[in-house]
Design brief:
The termini are far apart. Helix content is about 15%, strand content about 35%. Helix 3 crosses helix 4. Strands 8-9-13-12-11-10-14 form a 7-stranded mixed beta barrel. A 5-stranded mixed sheet has the order 7-6-5-15-16, covered by helices on one side. With about 675 residues, it is mostly beta strands.
Length: about 675
C-alpha cells in the first residue's frame, strides 16, 4: 500500500456542543490537489428537469444529468450507457466506508469483478470533495495497475460535494435515509467539558451476534487482549490491535467477564473489518465488539487512572449508494453486511440478469395472466382461476414468469424473514393431482426486486382442463408480499441435459413419486419402492424433482448441511442430487447472476440445501429412459428414494430439519 496519513477534523454541533474527532487513512496529496482545490466549485450543473418536492422513489425513471469529473465531465442519459450506473457517495464520517476504501480485498474486488456493463460515479458528501475524489481515484488506479486497467474508463470521480451538485442526486441520497446510520462511540469522563464522539465499525455479525445496549459502560485498558485478563468486571475492554486475531481478543475478553470490546487502531492504521477466519467462525461469541481510532484523550485519561465511560449510538446519515438500471430506473442497493465493494458488484450482476430477463420475455409466447400485483398473505394466499389457451396440446414449453415485490416502494416495507413460497394448481377437482405444486420460490430478506422465469414444461400434463385454479402462498404468519405471475406457453425443443437432436417432444403424462418430511432417523423408513410400467408410444422418460432442505438440528442440518437425494431405478441406476454448497460462506452469491436477490438484510450469502434466499427453486431434471425396461406390457420397473446426511441416514438428537419435495416421472412422446 502507498504511504498513508491520517486526517482529522472537528465538527461543532449547534444544538449540543460536543467534540467529534474523525480519522481516515488517506494518501498524501501533492501538487494537483492544491490546483484542484483552487478551482471555483460553484459550477452550474445541468439536469433535464426537477423531481417533485417529495423526491424520487425506487422504480421511478431517472433524469439526465451532467457532473464535472477529475478527467472532464460525465453526462448521463437514461438508457444510453448500455448498462447500469452505480452512484457512491463517500463521507469521512463513516467507519464502514473507511474500511471499504482501505481494504485491499475490497478495492481489488471492484477492479476485478465489476461487470463490464457497469459504470460507477464516485461522489463525496463532505466539503473535502476535491481531496476525496483524488484519493478515491488514486486508490483504484493503484490496484488497477496490477490487474485490470480498462475498468478505469468506467469509473468517474466528481470533485464537487453532493450538496453543491445542483441536480436531483442529493434528493435521492438525503431522501432515502431511513436505514443509513453513522455508527459512533461516545466517551465521557469527569472534568471533560464535552463528550468525545468517534466513528466505529462493529465486528462482523456472523460470529458476533450481540449488539451494544443503550447504556454507558466503564472503559478498562487491558493491553492487547491477546491473553485472558484477571477480570474486566463487566466493563468494556479497551485493547490495541495486533499480536493476535480479533477473534482471540474478543474470546479472551468474554472469558474475563467483559461486557464488550473496543479495539483501537494503531496510529496511522485504518479501521478494519473485524471478521472471523476459518474455524473461528464456528464459535459464537456472546459480547459485542467494535473497532475505533485511537483517541489520545481517552488513552491519556485511562493511563492516569481516570474513569472513562463509553456508550454507543447511531446517527442518521445520507445514503452512500444507489443504482440506476440499464433502462434508467432508480433502484436501492440493499444492505452491505460488511465493508466490501463485492456488494456493488453483486447488485451490478443482478442488473445484468434483469436486463437479460427482459430480453427473454420478448420471445414469442402465449401469455396467460394469473396475478397482477396481488396481495399474498395469510392462510389463503393469492388465488385466481384462469382460462387455459386453446390448442394447449400444441405447446411443449411452460414457463412461470413470477415476481415478488413489497407493499411500499422502499425495501423498508418488505418482509423481514425468508419463507418458502409455493404455487399450486388444480384443473380438475376430481384428479389426484389437484393442488399439485407447480413452482417454488424463496422470499428475500427485506428486498422486493425479485423476478424469475422458471421452466416447468414437464408438468404441462397437469393443465388438462379449460380452466385452472392457481394458488400462491407461504406460511400464514409471514408479512405480506405483492405477487405477479404469468404463465408463458410456447413451442421449442426440450433441450439442455435431457434430450438431443431437433425432435420436438411433449410431456403427456406424469406419475407422482415421493414427497419429503421430517429429516430424522425415520425419514427413509417412510418410503417404499414403487413399481410402474411404461405407457405405449413413449419416447422418453424423465425424473423431475423439486427438493429443498430446511431447519437446523444439532448438526446444523438441513438448511446448512450437505444432504444427498437418491432415486434408484431397477436397483441398479442411482441418480443423485447433492447439495454440496450448503453452508459455504458465499454459496448463494454465485447465484446472483441467475436471479438471486443480492444485498439482502440477512444471511443471504450462505449456500443452502437446494435453495437461496430471493431465488426460484429450479427443478432437477434427469433423463432416465435408458435405465428402464421400455416394454409397455408389464410393470417391470421400480424406483426407490432415500435421503442421506454425509452419506448416512439422518439421526439428529434434537430439532430435526425437514425436506420439502415434489417428484414425478414424466412421459414424453
Amino acid at each position: 500500500m502507498t504511504s498513508l496519513r491520517s486526517r482529522s477534523s472537528m465538527v461543532w454541533f449547534l444544538v449540543l456542543t460536543v467534540r467529534v474527532t474523525e480519522a481516515i487513512v488517506k494518501p498524501k496529496l501533492i501538487g494537483h490537489e492544491a490546483a484542484c482545490e483552487s478551482h471555483d466549485n460553484t459550477v452550474i450543473l445541468r439536469s433535464s428537469k426537477t423531481f417533485t418536492a417529495a423526491g424520487p422513489e425506487p422504480g421511478d425513471m431517472t433524469e439526465a444529468f451532467t457532473v464535472p469529473t477529475l478527467d472532464g465531465e460525465f453526462s448521463y442519459q437514461p438508457g444510453a450507457l448500455g448498462g447500469p450506473l452505480i452512484v457512491h457517495a463517500f463521507t469521512n464520517k463513516s467507519g464502514a466506508l473507511e474500511c471499504l476504501w482501505s481494504s485491499e480485498s475490497s478495492l481489488t474486488s471492484l477492479v476485478q469483478d465489476l461487470p463490464d456493463s457497469t459504470h460507477v460515479l464516485f461522489l463525496s458528501l463532505d466539503d473535502s470533495a476535491v481531496s476525496d475524489a483524488l484519493w478515491m481515484r488514486d486508490q483504484l488506479q493503484r490496484v488497477a495497475m496490477h490487474s485490470k486497467k480498462e475498468v478505469l474508463l468506467r469509473l468517474h470521480f466528481c470533485p464537487v460535494p453532493v450538496f453543491a451538485l445542483g441536480n436531483w442526486i442529493p434528493l435521492v441520497l438525503y431522501y432515502w435515509t431511513a436505514t443509513s446510520r453513522l455508527a459512533q462511540a461516545v466517551f465521557t469522563s469527569e472534568g471533560w467539558n464535552m463528550p468525545i464522539i468517534i466513528k466505529r465499525v462493529d465486528a462482523r455479525y456472523d460470529w458476533l451476534m450481540t449488539r451494544w445496549s443503550q447504556k454507558s459502560y466503564e472503559l478498562m485498558d487491558v493491553g492487547d487482549g491477546c491473553d485472558p485478563y484477571p477480570s474486566v468486571s463487566g466493563a468494556v475492554a479497551w485493547v490495541s490491535e495486533g499480536n493476535c486475531s480479533f477473534f482471540t481478543k474478543v474470546q479472551n475478553m468474554a472469558s474475563s467477564n467483559a461486557s464488550g470490546v473496543l479495539v483501537y487502531a494503531l496510529p496511522g492504521n485504518p479501521l478494519q473489518d473485524m471478521n472471523c477466519v476459518e474455524d473461528e467462525c464456528n464459535t459464537t461469541l456472546s459480547i459485542p465488539a467494535s473497532m475505533v481510532h485511537l483517541e489520545p484523550s481517552v488513552a491519556q485519561a485511562l493511563q492516569s487512572g481516570q474513569l472513562v465511560y463509553a456508550s454507543f449510538q447511531s446517527t442518521p446519515s445520507p445514503k452512500y449508494f444507489f443504482g440506476i438500471d440499464q433502462e434508467g430506473i432508480l433502484a436501492e442497493m440493499g444492505g452491505f453486511l460488511y465493508p466490501s465493494f463485492s456488494f456493488v458488484n453483486w447488485q451490478a450482476q443482478w442488473f445484468d440478469f434483469y436486463a437479460d430477463l427482459q430480453t427473454k420475455l420478448q420471445h414469442p409466447a402465449k401469455v396467460v395472466p394469473v396475478f397482477d400485483k396481488v396481495l399474498m398473505q395469510g392462510e389463503t394466499g393469492a388465488v385466481a382461476t384462469v382460462n387455459m389457451p386453446s390448442g394447449l396440446l400444441d405447446f411443449n414449453v411452460l414457463e412461470l414468469d413470477a415476481s415478488l415485490s413489497c407493499p411500499g416502494k422502499r425495501d423498508l416495507s418488505c418482509a423481514h424473514w425468508d419463507h418458502t413460497v409455493q404455487l399450486f394448481i388444480c384443473c380438475d377437482h376430481l384428479s389426484p393431482y389437484c393442488n399439485t405444486e407447480l413452482g417454488r420460490w424463496i422470499t428475500a430478506f427485506r428486498r422486493g426486486i425479485g423476478r424469475w422465469l422458471t421452466d416447468v414444461s414437464p408438468l404441462l400434463p397437469l393443465l388438462d382442463s379449460n380452466r385452472c385454479t392457481l394458488t400462491m402462498k407461504t406460511v400464514p404468519w409471514a408479512m405480506p408480499w405483492i405477487v405477479s405471475l404469468n404463465l408463458r406457453f410456447s413451442i421449442g425443443n426440450q433441450t439442455g441435459n435431457i434430450t438431443g437432436g431437433d425432435e420436438e417432444l411433449r410431456p403427456f403424462r406424469v406419475m407422482s413419486l415421493y414427497s419429503g418430511g421430517t429429516f430424522d432417523k425415520n425419514y427413509n423408513k417412510r418410503y417404499q419402492p414403487i413399481k410402474f410400467h411404461i405407457p405405449a408410444s413413449v419416447k422418453k422418460v424423465e425424473l423431475y424433482a423439486v427438493i429443498t432442505a430446511h431447519g437446523s438440528d444439532d448438526h446444523r442440518c438441513g438448511e446448512f448441511c450437505i444432504t444427498s437425494h437418491h432415486f434408484l431405478f431397477n436397483s441398479v441406476f442411482n441418480n443423485t442430487l447433492v447439495f454440496d454448497t450448503a453452508g459455504t460462506p458465499l454459496g448463494c452469491t454465485t447465484q446472483v447472476k441467475h436471479g438471486a436477490v443480492p444485498n439482502e438484510h440477512g444471511t443471504w450469502l450462505y449456500g443452502r440445501g437446494g435453495w437461496c434466499d430471493g431465488l426460484q427453486v429450479d427443478p432437477w431434471r434427469t433423463d432416465v429412459t435408458k435405465q428402464l425396461d421400455m416394454n409397455a406390457s408389464s410393470p417391470s420397473n421400480t424406483v426407490e428414494y432415500f435421503g442421506l446426511f454425509e452419506g448416512h441416514d439422518p439421526n439428529p438428537s434434537k430439532d430435526p430439519g425437514y425436506i420439502i419435495m415434489s417428484s414425478f416421472l414424466v412421459f414424453y412422446k
